[in-house]
Amino acid sequence: MNDISAALPLLRVRNLNVRFGASPDAVRALRNVSFDLGREKLGVVGESGSGKSTLGRALLKLLPPSANVSAGTMQFSNLDLSAASEKQMLNVRGRQIGMIMQDPKYALDPTMKVGDQIGEAVTLHLGKRGRARRRHVLDMLDTVQIRNPERVYDLYAHQISGGMGQRVMIAMTLVAEPKIIIADEPTSALDVTVRRKLLVLLDGLVSARGIGLIFITHDLDLAESFCDRLLIMYAGQIVEELGSADLKNAQHPYTRGLLASLPRLDRPVDRLSVLVRDAAWSKDISQRTGP
């Protein structure tokens, strides 16, 4: 674990488990997940179905009633999230821990103007109304580098591009100045140019505000170049934890298999490697103990 995370932990998770259903063969979406988050960009990487998005939603207790969630610790500030009431979580969601959803087409309300949607968060978390609320919204749109915020304020979700929609989602998340942001595949539907601009924006905001960012992605190359530290997930477990600069020295065969399957301009091959899975990777990892 890097020095930043050890010195300034914002979130501490130990042995987080999520099971959907109560039967013996119920799906175990997360198994003994443990990690710390500091004022850093923490990448959570894995294939679809590895448990990445479930992890983000479990931290905010946004999973459906069918989910059975348990944890030794989910410590945020002075609050154990695993034991927190819904009333306490209402004060955490958005205000303390924000979440950028994967696709603005589904996350934004199609019946409300962009400015009104961000304005709801301003009123809820900051208590501002009227002109003060509008001014704050316009300032946030400017912060996320949206040109002509006065015009965008009055647009609906279907009238803005995917890149602008993601910026709007970031603005909504940053309104309350949360200490942690969970970004769930925030650039998956964007072209390379727009994606790069958004990553530069997120990087600047995280650095300037001292935010802890959990960056959920299936793109190993992107995580390596953008994040400070990586958690590699497979079958609901963290199989490897390492600094992004050390990714090429990964030890777990799953991580090495993912790396081998990526095309490289500096090492062209006639045929890319195909990941061969081992049943042993799905076996439970021992529970983590200690601080």
Sequence-ordered SSE layout with sheet pairings:
Elements (H helix, E strand, L loop, with lengths): L2 H5 L3 E10 L6 E11 L3 E5 L6 H8 L7 E4 L2 E4 L2 E2 L5 H7 L4 E4 L3 H4 L6 H13 L3 H14 L5 H5 L8 H13 L5 E5 L7 H18 L2 E6 L2 H7 L2 E6 L2 E7 L9 H8 L31
Parallel strand pairs: 3-9, 3-10, 7-8, 8-9
Antiparallel strand pairs: 1-2, 1-4, 1-5, 5-6, 10-11
Helix pairs in contact: 5-6, 5-8, 6-8, 8-9
Spatial gap, N to C terminus: 13 Å
Structural class: alpha/beta
Residues in β-strands, percent: 15-25%
CATH domain class of the domain at 1-96 and 218-277: Alpha Beta
- The CATH architecture designation of the domain at 1-96 and 218-277 is 3-Layer(aba) Sandwich
Q: What multimeric state do the chains show?
A: single chain
What's the helix count?
Answer: 11
Strand order of the largest sheet: 7-8-9-3-10-11
The major sheet is characterized as:
6 strands, mixed
* Overall geometric form: globular
Q: SSE order, as H and E?
A: HEEEHEEEHEHHHHHEHEHEEH
Full CATH superfamily name of the domain at 1-96 and 218-277: P-loop containing nucleotide triphosphate hydrolases
Q: Which stretches of 5+ consecutive residues score pLDDT under 50?
A: 1-6
Kindly provide the radius of gyration, computed on alpha-carbon positions and rounded to a whole number of angstroms: 20 Å
Mean pLDDT: 88
Helix content: 25-40%
Q: How many β strands by DSSP?
A: 11
CATH topology category name of the domain at 1-96 and 218-277: Rossmann fold
